[in-house]
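Let us walk through a complete example step by step. Step one is to write down the protein sequence. Step two is to encode the small molecule, zinc ion, as a SMILES string so that its atoms and bonds are unambiguous. Step three, shown after the inputs, is the structure prediction itself.
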Amino acid sequence: METKNTKAYGTSAAEAPLQSMDIKRRVATPHDVEIEILFCGVCHSDLHTARNEWHGTVYPCVPGHEIVGKIVSVGGHVNKFKVGDVVGVGCIVDSCRDCQYCKEGLEQFCEPGMTGTYNSPDKHLANTPTFGGYSERIVVDENYVLRIPGNLDLAATAPLLCAGITTYSPLKHWNVGPGKKVGVVGIGGLGHMGIKIAKAMGAHVVAFTTSQSKFDEAQRLGADEVVLSKDPEQMKKFRGQLHFILDAVSAEHDINAYLNLLRVDGSLALVGAPELPLPVAAFSVIMGRKSFAGSMIGGIAETQEMLDFCGEHNITADIEMINIDQINDAYERLLKGDVKYRFVIEMASLKG
Ligand SMILES: [Zn+2]
Ligand SMILES: [Zn+2]
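Step three: the predicted structure of the complex.
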């Protein structure tokens, strides 16, 4: 298969810093679009994968699955897009298209496995992983490419492709809307999107944080109420009050304390990925027929729905823009939670 050299930024080993490298991408096939990448968000998964913290990383590894760019060429059979269109690519670049979940638009749960934007076996090029958005261009089948609403700031839109859909999908699935009280736990990359989207869906939003310093921030993001989760008195006030809780915390935390805040038939969905199992007390869920659940990104059609929803409601992420040569520092700051609330790489800096 014909390939083209592409500038990228990635790593050759778990312990190595990210650095400039050349990768090969296929030349667009009839159903592909070739995208010049303008912006790429920095997701915590990028760091986990680059450092092989979830195991199974294939090197070299080029992370990045919050991609916004402009189409520079299209294959002969492409009919959804044309050269010049501004588009997005999220966490999924392909799937089997035939299993029950692909047919239901749940490509993230494709039975043989979705093709992740990075670190998945490349269906077109043998013995090479897919390479993500920390690069100058990417080639993707048009069916896995998203349209970006024209009114949104492009850099601040990039994080919607992972953080946006990761929070939108469960909020939608558990019927968040007017008349519902919704808790969002953790105000970081995911949580800050959860607050904005839940609010735009019409819910009454209660933000939970361990840090007093995030009170004003949570309100600015749209929370109706803010709770200091370390204070049992404040927590007690919400006992049995919430219809749904979106838990975006990746660190260890007391899940029972939050299950106690659900109303009868309420659900708590994890979107963060704590390293260790979270002990759930049986009585936390038996009492009140509660559900302890989880959710992972969203399908392609739902990702488009999320982008359109964000366009209508003028929702983007709060970002800090960086150049590609700042990525290693950005990872260190990410580990400390020192970002409000998402780093986005200006990809033009790769050409510099
Ligand atoms: Zn991500
Ligand atoms: Zn499938």
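Step four is interpretation. The mean pLDDT is 97.
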